[in-house]
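for the recovery benchmark. tokens below, seq after
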């Protein structure tokens, strides 16, 4: 059972201290400090602020906030996550 949340490719990149070369992976980001992988970023940092996410994504903090707001609105409409309080 995988308890750290990392895929095999992310574990390999961490082990060899090299950036992920698979740019068409949906988890790839242009952030070599954390092996170009969103999973590695989360593994290293844990919860991140919207500013940290913006830095890694190459977009503004305001845009990340807009995306977050829209996602929360969709979740509220769909009532997908009843465990969260809105």
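predicted aa per position
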């Amino acid at each position: 059972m995988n308890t750290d949340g990392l895929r095999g490719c992310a574990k390999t990149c961490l082990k060899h201290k090299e950036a992920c070369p698979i740019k068409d992976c949906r988890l790839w980001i242009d952030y070599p400090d954390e092996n170009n992988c969103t999973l590695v970023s989360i593994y290293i940092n844990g919860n991140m602020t919207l500013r940290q996410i913006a830095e890694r994504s190459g977009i503004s903090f305001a845009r990340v906030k807009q995306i977050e707001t829209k996602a929360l609105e969709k979740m509220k409409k769909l009532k997908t996550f009843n465990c969260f309080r809105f």
